[in-house]
Amino acid sequence: MTTHALNLAVIRASGADAKDFLHNQLTQSVQDLQPDRARLFSYCSPRGRVLANGLIWLDNRAETQLHLMVHQSVAKALLQKLQMYVLRAKVKFERLEAAQIMGTTQPSFLTTLPASQQGWELPIYHGDHEHVLAIQAPGTTGQAHRFWQINLADEQSIDDQMIPAQQWRWQDLCLGWPWVVEATSEAFIPQNLNLDLLAAVNFEKGCFPGQEIVARSHYRTTIRRRALLFSAPLPARQENSASSLPGTDIILTDPEGKSRPAGRIVNAVAMQDKLWLLAETNLDFVLEKAALSVQENGAEPLHMHELPFQAQLPWEDPRKKS
Q1: Model-level pTM greater than 0.70?
Q2: Could you give all domains of the chain from N- to C-terminal order, each with its CATH number?
Q3: 274, β-bridge pairs
Q4: Is residue 214 within 8 Å of residue 27, measured between CB atoms?
Q5: In the 8-state DSSP scheme, what is residue 90?
Q6: CB of 76 within 8 A of CB of 216?
Q7: Tens of pLDDT, residue by residue, the chain (322 residues)
């Protein structure tokens, strides 16, 4: 059965200190956030590991209210972490249990489509009801217009413009956009997920949990363990196996037939008779054309696909410069 609801959750932050509090907690700048734009963010542990990531936007009716959209599996943990650090700040957090998010090629309340979105400063459009909005996502080669259509209070109806959830997740992978899930929470620093290239980390904003480690990795080292897009043939009757892959290893097999872990899967989806995945690995393995595979997929070889920001990845190892 085709499903359209995305596995995403919304957390609301409200109160006089909501903006300042989140500005000091997230990797993204929040104080200068405008009500007509959403931004990408990540939330890190003190060790600089990403616990959750997603979108943040300001309520168009009140600057004391913001919303965070993250994967459902990490929403509870993120809510608990944020509440733990509130102390005397005037901010309250709540998960909007009734919120529902779907992908669409055109929001039901937009009669005219805007220009296709290319960057990650994401336009927001509001519906007739205060709890209905759409955030325009970057387009893909095959789908120029993509929107998260969000209903914060009521169940949404499905129309012909809705994109099946599996197809939407595949489009996210093709754009290189990772969703941290429970199995990968605290497994990666932002650079491993290319969140620095996706404008989810603002290195000028000041402190946030893990900032020292994340900034040192940015300014003093070159992080070459990066998330790349791969595909492999999908074994028969394994369409549902992709959901269990995040957090598992990809394998490198040497010429002698010996295998060892070469990275970890971030997200995976079955689409077009293939297994598609974002997997973090060392760029050297790609340059050396190493034999990479997913052990759970019958050791089928992985084929790399180009991401929109492929050229920005640190392919050259500065330690090997003469």
Answers
A1: yes
A2: 8-183 (3.30.1360.120), 222-320 (2.40.30)
A3: 233, 271
A4: yes
A5: S
A6: no
A7: 468 999 999 999 999 999 999 999 999 999 999 999 999 999 999 999 999 999 999 998 888 999 999 999 999 999 999 999 998 999 999 999 999 999 999 998 999 999 999 888 999 999 888 899 999 999 999 999 999 999 999 888 888 899 999 999 999 999 999 999 999 999 999 999 999 999 999 999 889 999 999 999 999 999 999 999 999 998 765 666 788 999 999 999 887 888 999 999 999 999 989 999 999 999 999 999 999 999 766 668 999 999 999 999 999 887 776 5
